[in-house]
Design a protein that fits this description.
heterodimer, A: about 280 residues, alpha/beta, Rossmann fold, 5-stranded parallel sheet, two-stranded antiparallel sheet, 10 helices, 7 strands, about 10% strand, B: about 325 residues, 7-stranded mixed sheet, about 40% helix
């Protein structure tokens, strides 16, 4: 990846993180931890990888994205705003009664949302349905999904994993946001769903393990997904919950809590420093 | 078409209708390892390329159907009512009902007439469960001709539809001229003393009850409510005003089903004495269907008794 592109992706992801925090702060509720851990993946998908257009978001030939871990909605909405699907000024209406930006993604009311999600374990199945339809219709579109690591404690994820391999859905690529933390703490302490790599491999998937904050590794993993024929791909992305905000990093308590005024100011100033270091405008 | 008097299970008509109308390329059929029982196998024979077995994983199947529908497909997702409406309730609620997706749920083996398999497979709650989901249309055909028309109507209606079919062979009661429209009840016989509002296989018992009542000098109107939701309020209110007493009959718990839906309409618009025929908040058991109908009071005799009780309360 050339340095200009890398820098521009880093800047976009930083802005996405800022907007995700703006959303949660103004709503006084939401899920910042997982939005921050998955921001780089979402940014790369929408900015680079996906064949999708904000002005033609229902194009039957477009690539699809399903946020299976629907509680990371603030991150998804921030990316949609960053990429022109929704106005940036709407971000601060997140979760408010007069807003279309529902607490969890609502495909009926939000441009660019391909599936309503929020109830964990279902998004991967929906993505499988889209991929199967694409196979049947002999279309070239690809389907992406983002799973949570705690979400993999839901049995339906493994039903979908079986299904995707059975129907050889090589047009399906799922990311696993492996930040290691869920509401009640360390995922291995709550109900250990690991090892993810061996499990998905045993289910018949192409497995790629990466640093989920490295755009170069995301790029390479997606190329591997495209090249894998006859099986779906899972990209297990090692991430840091709360990434880029010092006091949120690796803290399960930031799974579903909003920053107060003081914390918000600090979080924004940390991100602004980072944006300045990349040569960006704040 | 099925001939009047011919006995056949509505699930047979479901499979046949899928095959018949399945030339529409948008239709895909999903099953959870029950295709010989749900009769989706009939569709599979005609259109194998659009039949997808999901294995024994009903929750996944419902959400797969949801995903396919976002790509322009009209999925019919089939299983027994217990595992469709019951096990996969939350998938239906969140992935189909909430986004108002164009998924049809073909639920067979509904009610106590499943028989020998017993309580675990006798779904008596599905209408109640599905009725609580906004955007859901619920169709419960009484015979094979109606089942065929219900499948066609479900294809033509954009949005989620729950179709309820039975395992047991039931007599064909509707002929060639029968018209089916979602949300419109059908008056099958007029009467002035009481109205029997029935759904599904209880409709034929309701017609028998009318004859029995007539012999005893009681004039009963009979209405078939094939669409439990949206319910035909007008036909119910008119019946209440004109006959002054109502009996509902359904192969379902009296809690949450047709009886509840009719009671809601009557309470709000025209309260009159009303009695409900259905299972009375209890689980089923193994046995031949005829014996179970007798034990649980899902028969002509019970409808007649309840009709008289309702009239006595006027």
């Amino acid at each position: 990846m050339n340095p200009t592109m890398l820098n521009s992706l880093k800047l976009s992801a930083a802005n996405v993180r800022k907007m995700a925090l703006e959303a949660v702060y103004n709503a006084k509720s939401g899920h910042p931890g997982g939005a921050l851990s998955s921001a780089d993946i979402l940014t790369y998908l929408y900015k680079v990888e996906m064949n999708a257009n904000p002005n033609n978001s229902k194009d039957p030939d477009r690539d699809r994205f399903v946020l299976s871990k629907g509680h990371a909605s603030a991150g998804l909405y921030a990316v949609l705003a960053e990429c022109g699907y929704i106005p940036k000024e709407d971000i601060k209406t997140f979760r408010k009664a007069d807003s279309y930006l529902q607490g969890h993604p609502d495909m009926k009311g939000i441009n660019g949302v391909d599936m309503s999600t929020g109830s964990l374990g279902q998004g991967l199945s929906a993505a499988c349905g889209m991929a199967l339809a694409g196979k049947y219709d002999k279309k070239d579109y690809r389907v992406f999904a983002l799973l949570g690591d705690g979400e993999c404690e839901e049995g339906q994820i493994w039903e979908a994993a079986m299904f995707a391999a059975h129907y050889k859905l090589d047009n399906l690529c799922a990311f696993l946001d492996f930040n290691g933390l869920q509401i009640d703490g360390d995922i291995t302490q709550v109900m250990n769903p690991t090892p993810f790599d061996k499990k998905f491999e045993a289910f018949g998937w192409n497995v790629v393990v990466i640093d989920g904050h490295s755009f170069e590794e995301i790029e390479t993993a997606l190329a591997s997904a495209k090249a894998a024929k006859g099986k779906p791909t899972i990209i297990i992305a090692n991430t840091t919950k709360g990434k880029c905000v010092s006091f949120m990093e690796n803290q399960a308590s930031w799974h579903g809590a909003a920053p107060n005024d003081e914390q918000y100011v600090q979080a924004v100033s940390e991100l602004d420093e980072y944006i300045k270091s990349l040569g960006g405008a704040i | 078409m099925y001939t009047i008097g011919e006995k056949k299970a509505t699930r047979e008509a479901y499979g046949a209708a899928l095959a018949e109308f399945g030339s529409d390329e948008r239709i895909v059929v999903l099953d959870a390892d029950l295709s010989p029982a749900t009769k989706t196998g009939t569709f599979k024979k005609e259109h194998p390329e659009r039949f997808f077995n999901c294995g024994i994983a009903e929750g996944n199947m419902m959400t797969i159907a949801a995903g396919m529908s976002t790509c322009g497909k009209i999925p019919f997702a089939s299983s027994f009512a217990m595992f469709a409406a019951g096990r996969a309730f939350e998938q239906i609620r969140n992935s189909i009902g909430y986004p108002k997706l164009n998924v049809k749920i073909g639920a067979t083996h509904a009610g106590i007439s499943v028989g020998e398999d017993g309580a675990t497979h006798q779904c008596l709650e599905d209408i109640g469960l599905m009725r609580t989901i906004p955007n859901m249309v619920i169709l419960n055909p009484a015979d094979c001709n109606e089942a065929r028309l219900a499948v066609k109507a479900a294809i033509d209606h954009y949005g989620p539809v729950y179709l309820r079919f039975g395992r047991l062979a039931v007599p064909t009661i509707f002929g060639e001229d029968y018209r089916f429209e979602i949300g419109k009840g059908v008056q099958l016989a007029d009467g002035k003393d009481v109205t029997i509002i029935a759904t599904g296989l209880m409709v034929s018992y309701a017609l028998e009850a009318k004859t029995v009542l007539e012999e005893q000098g009681i004039s009963a109107r009979v209405i078939n409510i094939h669409t439990i939701k949206p319910i035909d309020r007008d036909i119910i209110v008119k019946a209440a005003k004109e006959t002054g007493a109502i009996v509902t009959a359904e192969e379902h718990n009296i809690i949450g089903g047709l009886g509840s839906a009719v009671a809601e309409v009557l309470c709000e618009e025209c309260p009159v004495p009303m009695m409900r025929v259905g299972t009375r908040d209890e689980f089923g058991r193994s046995g031949v269907p005829a014996k179970l109908f007798e034990i649980y009071g899902l028969d002509t005799k019970t409808i007649v008794e309840k009709a008289k009780e309702a009239i006595a309360k006027k």
